[in-house]
Amino acid sequence: MSDVIISGGGLVGLAFAAALDSAGLRATLVDPADPDARANAAFDGRTSAVSSSSRRMFEVVGIAPHFPEPGNPIRTIKVADGLAEGGLAFEAGAEEEPLGWMHENRHLREALLKRARAGRHLDLRYGRHAVATRRDANRVRMTLDDGSEIAAPLLVGAEGRNSPTREAAGIRVARWKYDHHAIVSTLAHARPHGDVAWEIFYPGGPFALLPMTDLPDGRHRSALVWSVPTADSPGLLKLPDEVFAAEAERAMGGFLGAIEMLSPRSTYPLGFHHTARLTAERMALIGDAAHGIHPIAGQGVNLGYRDAAALAEVLVEGRRLGMDPGDAQLLERYERWRSLDTLSVAAATDGLTRLYGVPGRTASMVRRLGMGLVNRFGPLKEKLKQEAQGTSGDLPLLLRGLPI
Question: Residue 243 domain-assigned?
């Protein structure tokens, strides 16, 4: 019998599995997808910003050595209200670690899957799904579609926004939709990005450019996440590549030079959700199963990695004390540890989304004034920089670069 059943083998579920395996805990991971089809797919333009604290965890639990390429560091984050002067800039010092790293999602999945397959304490059940799950005071039992049955003291739901584990537990969710879609792609540009991530706010939605590694032929590239009103999304997707590239170049004021599209454009609706609880009897939620936020600050998947690191630490400490992994006291500690942080980040990103969406010259002047004040007040600016790095608050050991 395993110590934990992990339902969901995406980015967060696999990171949690690696954290458990590195500490000697046994886990069975169940996911209906074919992981090799995902890992071998051509680059579709989807990327993730991995915060510096998440990267520390990847180093400690053995994920980082499996990256097919190291990713591109983010050494500066620039925030602007349109193309007007007076924005914010957060910079990593010469002796400091980067603020984060940009990775293609397919490379993230490849590294996470290779680490999981190398795990000595992991039982990977890809291509399988649960047909029945029973939780009681003693254990969790799960029957899979091939007729096999697995059991563990604890079930962890990591299936994403539409988590069946969460729904079966009857956990209430606060949710709403923004009247925006994100258009995602990758651009080649004439000038180097200098390891700078840009967040340019327009009344229609934020325009984010995230630095990626250069192509083998030397061309520079950046990932694009452009939030646009829902009504405008279909039209922008239908534009020829050359016309869309011209629109993107105009939105960034041409500071990266001529633009060329490198990957297909994709889109997804933007929304918010947050669960009333993170735990139930012999069950815990991590990642998007527990919370989903606007991509405005690039913290979505990193919140999930923080969940994974915190829950793994709680379970390892419980084992040292001889406690059952599904013990209510351990789950209560995880609940207390993570609930305030996830709610705070969710509220902050929602507030920023609404604040920068207010149109008009007066609103823009107020925003620029606020950014100027932040620039002049060192402690507040440093606090916001730590939030971007994922190094603020009560960090789990793995996010500090320490084993559990």
Answer: no
Helix (H, G, I), strand (E, B) or coil at 35: helix
What order of strands is seen across the sheet that includes strand 4-7? 122-126, 27-31, 4-7, 154-157, 283-285, 279-280
Would you say 57 and 23 are in contact if contact means Cβ atoms under 8 Å apart?
A: no
Domain assignment present for 216: no
Residue 100 lies in a domain: yes
Quick count: other Cβ atoms within 10 Å of Cβ 127? 14
CATH code of 51's domain? 3.50.50.60
The answer to whether 263 and 43 are in contact (CB under 8 A) is yes
pLDDT in tens, 37-93: 766 656 777 899 999 999 999 999 999 999 999 899 999 999 888 877 767 888 888
Q: Average pLDDT by consecutive 10-residue portion of the chain (404 residues)?
A: 95 98 98 80 80 96 96 92 77 87 94 97 96 95 96 97 95 90 94 95 88 95 94 94 95 92 92 93 97 75 96 98 97 95 73 58 59 59 66 88 96
What per-residue string of b and e applies to 316-326 under the rule 16 or more CB within 10 Å gives b? bebbeeeebbb
Tell me, yes or no, whether 202 lies in a domain: no
Residue 354 tokens, joined: 């609404």
195: left (phi over 0), alpha (psi -120 to 50) or beta: left
Contact 89, 376 (CB under 8 A): no
Please check whether residue 353 is in contact with residue 296, taking contact to mean a CB–CB distance below 8 angstroms.
yes
Beta 205-212 vs 220-229: how paired, if at all? antiparallel
pLDDT tens, 151-204? 999 999 999 999 999 999 999 999 988 889 999 999 999 999 999 999 998 888
Q: Which domain holds residue 12?
A: 4-175+271-400
Q: Report the domain count for the chain.
A: 1
